[in-house]
Fold:
Amino acid sequence: MEKLNLTGMTLEEMESLIESIGQPRYRAAQLFNWIYKKGILSFDQVTNFSKQLRQQLVDLAQIGLVTIEKQIVSSDNQTNKFLYKLADGQCIESVYMIDRKRRTVCLSTQVGCALACNFCATGAMDFKRNLTAGEIIDQLLAIQRTLNVEVTNVVIMGMGEPFLNYDEVMKACDLISHDKGVAIGKRKITISTSGIIPAIKRFTDDGQRYKLAISLNAAHEEKRSQMMPINKKYPLNELMNAAKYYTSKSRHRITFEYVMIAGVNDGMEDALKLAKLVKSLKCKINLIPYNAIDNHQAPPSEEKINAFIRPFLNLNVVISVRKSKGVDINAACGQLYNSFN
Ligand code: SAH
Ligand code: SF4
Structure:
């Protein structure tokens, strides 16, 4: 019989497991803490359990779902990119970034992505499958263990579209924020979506407190469809209504990401249109100068970026330019691809 994998199990699931082997329920909370807080990989490490209980667990279960195959460190030592292998042989990536006191991991949610945005390396791969909650949280646990660090922030912005794998992504976030586990606060976890409208509504109605980011990337309906084919299914005007629904109901700010590509969406007309689109929303704009994935497109010049920002300065909208981290190791936004090239 294949052994149960405990990575990805909720506390309640561990409680039923522990009770099913005739052990007291409180042991489950201890086990949960060993797995998610201390990041153990072997039941031998559970020193406060009897030998008998440890043996019961060894016979029944195992820990860990992803194996680090490779790790690359950027030249400034501030970014590490990890390549993992999954049990079925598929590969995924995640990234660890240091920025002063902040230690952020960027996690993947799918193997590949079906949405094929034309500026994204993940979009150029085929979609293979969704990740399980265990595979999502284990990327973080493996990084903490390998680098001996405590992660402070999580961005769900790696490979894949998180809102097309909603249940497993929310389960993973709930495990990451659980106070007996990794215990990263919900407002330190950001989920980025390309704009899956029904999931944005569900996220709002569920009263989720995780931070929400939407990859806007264009303020024109047609331009957005060219860049992001998903816009044909979930058009910009409806997406903005969903964003408004979220900000008014949750009372939280929303972040709009905008990948700036030279000659594509970096003009003054684009900036004015974007300003008009977002000005009535409680929001923040994150400009991401395009990170090259091929020779067809390039990032804008600094002057273009500065000019683009100008129309927002009089508005009640925070706008910032995301520093590109890990470009020299292809670990920056949009560069995640499952072969380490
Ligand atoms: N699928 C989700 C989350 C992963 S993509 C989404 O699209 O939001 C994470 C972010 O990287 C998105 O904001 C996306 O627009 C951005 N991105 C993709 N390719 C990029 C590239 N080549 N350069 C800069 N940012 C890119
Ligand atoms: Fe998928 Fe996001 Fe890349 Fe688009 S930008 S292809 S939605 S991962």
